[in-house]
Specification:
Helix content is about 60%, strand content about 10%. It is of the alpha+beta class and about 110 residues long. The chain has a four-stranded mixed β-sheet with strand order 2-1-3-4. Strand 3 and strand 4 form a beta hairpin. It is globular. The N and C termini lie far apart (about 65 Å).
Length: about 110
């Protein structure tokens, strides 16, 4: 009976979903994702998926959500439209992108 209970408990533990990635983990993964050419900066102030991998979409989504929240705070605090803050942030991100990392120009991903 103990073996059955133990086996049942182990199966329950193994069947639990893996812990989802959080923002901190996404931020930690971002430099590697950029260096590997998986993620790039876009002129709208957000990240884009250059080449899909296991966690790329999750990293992009988590960071973009955080960026959108910050952009909205900046827009509200300064009496600006969200779109204006996004464009300013996008230009700044493109300018700061390291050589060899991807940026989106004219709808095409290219290395800076």
């Amino acid at each position: 009976m103990r073996k059955i209970i133990g086996l049942t408990a182990m199966l329950l533990l193994l069947s639990q979903p893996l812990q989802a990635m959080d923002l901190q983990q996404a931020m930690t993964a971002l430099p590697t994702a950029k260096a590997q050419g998986l993620v790039g900066e876009q002129p709208d102030g957000y990240l884009g998926v250059v080449k899909a991998s296991a966690d790329t979409a999750t990293v992009v989504q988590l960071i973009n959500n955080a960026r959108r929240n910050e952009y909205q705070k900046l827009a509200t605090a300064n009496g600006l439209q969200l779109a204006d803050v996004e464009v300013m942030a996008g230009q700044k991100a493109l300018d700061k992108t390291q050589s060899g990392h991807f940026i989106l120009r004219d709808g095409q991903w290219q290395k800076k």
